[in-house]
Design brief:
With about 700 residues, this protein is of the alpha+beta class. About 45% of the residues lie in helices and about 25% in strands. The strands form 6 sheets. Strands 18-17-16-21-20-19 form a 6-stranded antiparallel beta sheet, sandwiched between helices. A 5-stranded parallel beta sheet has the order 2-1-3-4-5. Strand 9 (about 215-225) and strand 10 (about 230-240) form a beta hairpin. The protein is elongated. It starts with a strand and ends with a strand.
């Protein structure tokens, strides 16, 4: 594979010496070029790959040193010298490749040159082999290392250094722990190398080693290294860092398991057929099972024509329209349809159809997924959700006889709860799909009190509900019903449902407020009665106080009048004593009046309680004269009292009340009698009930 062009430079006083060498052919893969001169020339010596110098008749040491200073570092220097000169050249042996002792015959010269050629060829081949090996080792992505018996790395490649993050100078000559940044050598690694050296066999294994950056997984190939005597001197190892690959593999396994589980669970069917449906290109067993056929032949024999005969008739037209709507490759459509097996079993299928192109042919690729269990579960879940919703609605609306939801835009609605109704009018009206206008009109005409029909009719109109609920989220209307044969009070509650800005959903609830209303009315009646009683008490107080002010005025006038008279007659003790007695009489009467006023129960009830006890009628008349005498004198009147024919002077009466009555009458007589006149009081005893008698008091002004 290699080619080597060798430039020879011959120098010496006898050029004919080198003639046999120039005649020799080069070995395979070599070409020769010869230069020569009798005297050494620097230009030729600097370019030559091999210098052959004849030292005869020359200063051997000086000539050699000159040639050494000219030649390339890798150039070879072969000297031809006699025995005497050879002894002097022993001081500079390192720079000399070989020395040929003269004289040499032509045959000996050719033999030596041929031997040099062979050695040179071996060297070049060794170089090529080493170059190949180094290139393979260092350019390999795998980790390669050579270890001695003690596990010391003698040689590693570039990939090894890259993996451990160190240079060759740092790695070579060091053990496992240092290289991988751990505390101690890996026992598994040591054991595998021991087995290799003992068995002298290659060991293939996958090792997980601890590094400073975590675990690494290496797929290793370890073989023994032999010395020249055939003994094992160490191991050579090749490793592939499969850490990422194993992680990827685990991830792929996990994903494949997920996909396998998914597809196993879904039982997805796949089929391909021509555009006209006359030819089935391929179909898998899952698709046949979903469609209810044992084989592809059974499906064709049953009359497959784009759509399987087992598809529900109601779904065939829709499915065919979807399939034929695909126009260009890549277009796809998904839809759900139903299939009925010969045994009557009905399946729900989620299908996907895609228009494909392959080798210039268009065809449909279809995926069929049996979603019957899912549909059943969805239906069950829906029913459970509806049940929970109804339970929740019932719990929240337990006090409502009727709860309905409506869309104000369309008027359509449904009943959420229909409670018990004694007249059984709710269920016939609010069952099934509802129209707000129709069902409410029937309800109003059937059970609402005549006087409240128009009120409720206006309240449940769509226009009024929209107007009211646009300003507030809840609205109430109270009305009366007669549906159970009696007048009962009800309330309608209207509530916005959902986002009012997006939809006009409402909920109407109807509940009986009869007990509440009647309770409120009873409370109101009690309050009104209490107010009336308070008003009556207030009026009684006013009347009582008005009357008492009149009763008080008379004895007060007497007290003031007699006090004035007593002051003017202080020198007349008898007369003053008489005045004081009259003042005492008027004061006692006044005290009785005041005590009566302070008895608030009389005022609040508006009634007078009579305290009947034995009294002397003459004493009463005498006190009456004393109390009114001051007013009589003030108006210059005469007072005449007549008690003729009174047989029973002791009477049973309420002395205070009798005094009040007589004083009021006398007071009025005095008030309306002109000055100089006369006021008369006549008492007449009349027979009353059996065993008793009564008196008539006649008080009147007398014009004199």
């Amino acid at each position: 594979m290699y080619h080597c062009h060798v430039r020879f430079y011959f120098t010496g006083a006898q050029p004919e010496l080198f003639a046999p060498l120039k005649e020799m052919p080069p070995l395979e893969a070599f070409t020769h070029e010869f230069w020569e001169s009798s005297e050494p020339e620097k230009s030729l010596g600097a370019k030559a790959d091999v210098i052959l110098a004849d030292l005869r008749n020359r200063n051997a040491i000086e000539t050699v040193r000159t040639l050494i200073s000219w030649k390339k570092a890798e150039a070879e220097l072969i000297l031809l010298a006699d025995k005497e000169q050879i002894e002097s050249l022993s001081v500079i042996p390192r720079e000399i490749t070989d020395i040929w002792t003269l004289p040499l015959s032509a045959a000996e010269l050719r033999f030596r040159f041929l031997r040099w050629q062979q050695n040179n060829k071996i060297h070049k081949e060794y170089w090529q082999t080493s170059h190949y090996l180094e290139s393979v080792i260092n350019n390999s992505p795998n980790l390669i290392w050579f270890k001695d018996k003690n596990g010391i790395h003698e040689k590693v490649n570039d990939s090894f250094c890259t993996t451990v993050g160190k240079t060759k100078a740092q790695v070579q000559g060091r053990g496992h722990a240092y290289i991988w940044d751990v505390d101690q050598d890996d026992p598994a690694c040591i054991e595998s190398e021991r087995i290799v050296m003992e068995t002298r066999k290659t060991c293939v294994s996958e090792e997980t080693i601890q590094t400073g950056e975590g675990l690494r997984t290496l797929s290793t190939y370890k073989s023994p290294l032999y010395d020249l005597e055939g003994g094992v001197m160490g191991t050579v190892g090749v490793a592939i860092d499969v850490t990422k690959e194993r992680a990827y593999a685990q991830e792929l396994i996990r994903k494949n398991q997920t996909l396998e589980t998914l597809f196993t669970t879904m039982d997805c069917g796949v089929m391909r057929h021509s555009l006209d449906g006359s030819r089935i290109i391929s179909i898998n067993p899952a698709a046949l099972e979903i469609l209810g056929y044992q084989s592809e032949e059974d499906l064709i024999r049953d009359g497959f024509d784009l759509i399987a005969p087992c598809v529900f008739k109601a779904d065939k037209i829709k499915l065919q329209e979807k399939i034929t709507s695909l126009k260009k490759p890549g277009d796809s459509v998904s839809l759900e349809y139903r299939i009925q097996h010969p045994d009557g079993k009905i399946l729900h299928v989620m299908g996907n159809v895609k228009l494909m192109s392959e080798n210039g042919e268009l065809f449909y690729q279809r995926y069929l997924l049996d979603c019957t269990a899912q549909k059943i579960q969805e239906e069950k879940t829906r029913q459970e959700a509806e049940k929970r919703q109804m339970e929740l609605i019932y719990a929240l609306s337990v006090e409502y006889n009727l709860v309905c939801s409506f869309d104000l835009d369309t008027g359509a609605g449904t009943a959420l709860r229909i409670g018990e109704c004694g007249s059984n009018i709710l269920e016939p009206i609010f069952t099934g799909k509802l129209s707000l206008d129709e069902c409410m009109e029937r309800y109003i005409e059937t059970g609402v009190y005549d006087e409240d029909k128009e009120l409720l009719r206006q309240a449940v109109s769509r226009e009024q509900l929209y107007k009211v609920l646009s300003t507030k989220p809840i609205s109430f209307v109270n009305f009366r019903t007669t549906c159970c044969g009696e007048l009962r009070y009800f309330q309608m509650k209207a509530v916005r449902a959902g986002d009012w800005n997006k939809s006009r959903g409402i909920v109407l609830g109807f509940r009986s407020v009869d007990d509440e209303t009647r309770s409120d009315r009873e409370k109101k009646a009690l309050l009104e009665d209490a107010l009336a009683q308070a008003n009556r008490a207030s009026k009684a107080k006013s009347t009582f106080l008005s009357n008492m002010s009149h009763d008080i005025r008379t004895p007060m006038n007497a007290i003031i009048g007699f006090t004035t008279l007593a002051i003017t007659h202080l020198e007349n003790q008898n007369q003053v004593e008489e005045y004081l007695k009259k003042i005492m009489t008027s004061g006692n009467h006044l005290l009785s009046l005041i005590n009566d006023i302070l008895d608030m129960s009389h005022i609040e009830s508006g009634k007078i309680h009579l305290e009947e006890e034995p009294c002397s009628l003459p004493d009463i008349l005498h006190e009456l004269r004393n109390i009114t005498q001051a007013d009589i004198h003030a108006k210059q009147l005469d007072l005449y009292m007549d008690a003729v024919d009174i047989r029973h002077e002791e009477v049973c009466c309420d002395r205070l009340r009798l005094n009040q009555v007589l004083l009021n009458l006398l007071g009025n007589a005095v008030k309306y009698t002109s000055a100089g006149g006369m006021v008369s009081l006549k008492v007449i005893e009349k027979c009353g009930y059996a065993g008793g008698s009564g008196f008539i008091f006649n008080i009147a002004p007398v014009i004199g």
